Amino acid sequence: MTTAPALELDHIRRTYGLVTAVDDVSLTVAKGEFLTLLGPSGSGKTSTLRLIGGFERPDSGEIRINGRRVDHLPPYARDTATIFQTGALFPHKTVAENVVYGLKMHKIDKAESEKRVKDALAMVRLTGFEQRYPAQLSGGQKQRVALARSMALRPAILLFDEPLSALDLSLRLQLRAEIKRLHDELGFSAIYVTHDQSEAMAMSSRVAVMNKGHIVQIDKPDIIFHEPKSEFVFTFIGESCCLPVTIRNGEVRDKSGEPVDLKLARPPAAGEWRLYVRPSRVVMGEAAAAAENRIAANVAFAEFLGDVYRYHFKSGALELFCDYGGPERFQPGDRCVVGWDSAHMSVFQ
């Protein structure tokens, strides 16, 4: 007997007037998988989540949860639970009353409800907070209550609608780790929507990168980062230095026409190209001596980022940057050699 996936989207489409928000999206989420929908604003990720949760109806296509078609059902009739950006807690109810609310709506008996509330609050480390009200909680605690409320329902799939975006950095990192811990321990199925790449990379079993209503690549986080299938995915995921060049008769020139001594792992055909290298792959000074590609550049300016200095370099018409973990080393105008290996360079026309 074959077990149905936790979620299946089959050629889903959703339009708003002349705007196509979700365009022929298909995907399958296995039981226990944590899938993140990642993309810029307007890419269709939130609309896709709302279609799964039943807050929107698709114009065409099918949605199945545990093999059961649900695209015609309202949110309360689907086996899902949504954690929203704001937490959406009832301000006049205590923590325990907020968590038990959904269980009452689903007519779970009192003894079982009390057990689930206790277990859910223990999972999110809020035991002892049962009688507090939302106004007495921090932003991170409110989101943990919202998570407990959803987990107490034990849905087939948890839906996260950018739940950390309203929190400051330290709280965001703490709660991100909490959600990751809970998923590793409990193995629940989840769809997580975010525009924060670090969240997607840190938490996900797989990442689906969306753009203009389409899924343009879906894969494990490390594959998405190191083996992007398009220039959009490469430039959207992580940081990159772009080197626009023209290749003629095997010679590489920058956009001003000056020759550049670059070694390419697979030299492309003649034409205009954009060469990309991650700043984490760029080295400078003595460390650049062993690199396949080396250029002499001037320091344009530097940024202090807390644990590193980010140096921006300019060599003719080429610009790139890299981070240095030591004390401040260069000043604007200083000359320096920067380098990287050809295997770490991606080429797009």
Descriptive account of the structure:
The chain is α+β, with helices and mostly antiparallel strands. The chain contains 8 helices and 19 strands. It has helices at 45-53, 95-105, 110-123, 139-152, 169-186, 197-203, 221-226, 231-236; strands at residues 7-16, 19-29, 34-38, 60-65, 68-69, 80-83, 157-161, 190-194, 206-211, 214-219, 241-248, 251-254, 271-277, 283-284, 293-304, 309-315, 318-324, 335-340, 345-348. The protein has a 6-stranded mixed sheet, with helices on both faces. The protein has a 5-stranded antiparallel sheet with strand order 14-18-15-16-17, with no helix packed on it. A hairpin with a 2-residue loop joins strand 11 (241-248) and strand 12 (251-254). Helix 2 (95-105) crosses helix 3 (110-123) and helix 2 (95-105) packs parallel to helix 4 (139-152). The longest helix has 18 residues, at 169-186. The protein is elongated and about 75 Å long. The two termini are 48 Å apart. 36% of the residues are buried. The model has no long low-confidence stretch (mean pLDDT 90).
